[in-house]
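tool_log.txt
---
The assistant was asked to compare two proteins side by side. It first ran the structure predictor on the initial sequence, then on the second. Raw inputs and outputs are pasted verbatim so the downstream comparison step can read them without reformatting.
(1)
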Amino acid sequence: MHIVERDTALVVTVIDQCGQIWRDLEPHLRGVPRGVVLDLAQVGFLNSVNIAAIIAVRNKVVGNGGRFAVASLPEPVKAVFRILRLERLFDLDLGVDQAVARVKPGG
């Protein structure tokens, strides 16, 4: 996992699996509500633990007044999100730049 700040958002590039995402992100989310973009371009497979971790992070970020988006979903990952009807929580067609704009305050 690689975390960078871009504009006012944290962009989290997930490499392979994302089961430990909350543990790795939690220190970066303390304090001021902020936007978080989860870049999934390098993820080839998601299991139930990974999906649960993504939803938990989203809920925590949103619950603290921030905004959350997923970006650059490969087709197999996008298919899993659709099967689980997660398009109700996430826009599945954003690139990283679009997602960063979406999670900015006022975005």
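(2)
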Amino acid sequence: MGSSRLRIFDPHLERKDSAAFLNRELPLPTFDVPYFKYIDEEDEEDEWSSRSQSSTEDDSVDSLLSDRYVVVSGTPEKILEHLLSDLHLEAVQDKDTETLLDDFLLTYTVFMTTDDLCQALLRQYPSLNKEENLDVPCRKRKVLHLVSQWTSLYKDWLHEDDNLKQFLKTIYRNVLDDVYEYPILEKELKEFQKILGMNTHAHSISHQFSLKENWLQHRGTVNETEEIFCRVYITEHSYVSVKTKVSTSAQEILKIVAEKIQQAEEDLTLVTFTFSGEKHELQPNELAISKSLESSSRIFVYRKDLTDTLMPFAENEELQQKSVRILGINTWDLALELTNFDWSLFNSVHEQELIYFTFSRQGSGENTMNLSLLLQRCNEVQLWVATEILLCSQLCKRVHNCKTWEKIPGKFKKLFTELESLTDPSLNHKAYRDAFKKMKSPKIPFMPLLLKDVTFIHEGNKTFLDNLVNFEKLHMIADTVRSLRHCRNNQFGDEVPPKEHQELKSHIHHLHVIDNQQTLFELSHRIEPRV
């Protein structure tokens, strides 16, 4: 068997028997062993293989009557070759070809590097000196169309990839050379000029955008324009989560934290600690994030006249009063601000990040920055809710806001019961999945469940079968990941809350969090001791 091969399902192979088969009165059976075809080099003999697969009766009918080839597995080169041969340039792509193209572009990093894909595309781009036939301009245009779709899908995800930049320049020069021989390439030439223009622009300017501006922020490494959640610890187990750029100075972060904990900025200082015990006091103009991102280090806020950190939140009366004020804010405004912030995070997650997260868990941080922010936010919101409740130590105020089960109106009990049913995890979260499916976009999925689905597909299916890429597995993963696209078909409106709720916005963006379960447990017992 040659090294370059493609395994596909050919519905035409049984065409001779299909008429007689369809004339039978018996229902169509299901096949546990459908046939697949190996395609090797052009003159090599066909070989056959079978694979166990369960199908429903409808699936069998669709498979037998379909006029398309379904890619099952193959080498990267052969899959790419098959994909290019199926592309239609003048007409709109049929759904199957469009899906195959999208599957390939979303998942190619699983079985080949970006440099490998660039080299493979250059090999597929016919050389002017080597080939002279009518098919050459069509093949060139197909390669250019695929590259255009690739850069459109990934946007700025790849603009810092040196291999891709060199590839785009090389293929652009090729098009410049070819356009005189093949004027039909003029349209593709203009398209590439736009692509190179965007690439150069994105590389040369300082990216002054934030998560709220709906830009996809993807980098191989953390750069100074990206936004992250920086944890500034007040005590050993409580911190302020500050959303800030990597380029933010220590003084800017200190100003946010000081306002948050209602302390005078001039009385405070930021100190980085490593677990080995090393301490470094940050100067006002020093970059705080570069220090905090070092392995095994944390940022603490200290009183300049004390050697210990500030007192815990629970013992700070001013912070307790602020928590009470938060509990009194209109619930609609609170929900709106939480949704606005979460949408800005979700809208910045690229579909590729889920694949990187699943396939490279050890090194996923380099390519999953936005996804990591969203997951971190999910965890912090849960802890923030508990923190806010437990910091309100005055029982009368807690009862006024939370009441007791006996005094809760029936409509709220019903609402809570519906929420319990919706979050019921039985039958693989069927209630939630059904409700979410009926919702119109824009909508934010429960990301841990989506990651669970992708992981289930990954761990339940081999990536390679007989040294061939298991493309069926990659199609299932791509199909799951594409759900992000459907959730963002319509953009969430920027509803700006009243000016008097700017304090709420600041509070939502920079949460007070106690992340130690034992500390939360002790606070709970201090407020309501066990009988």
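---
observation on (2): Residues 318-457+483-527 form a domain with the Son of Sevenless (SoS) protein; Chain S, domain 2 fold (CATH 1.10.840.10). The CA atoms of residues 375 and 383 lie 13 Å apart.
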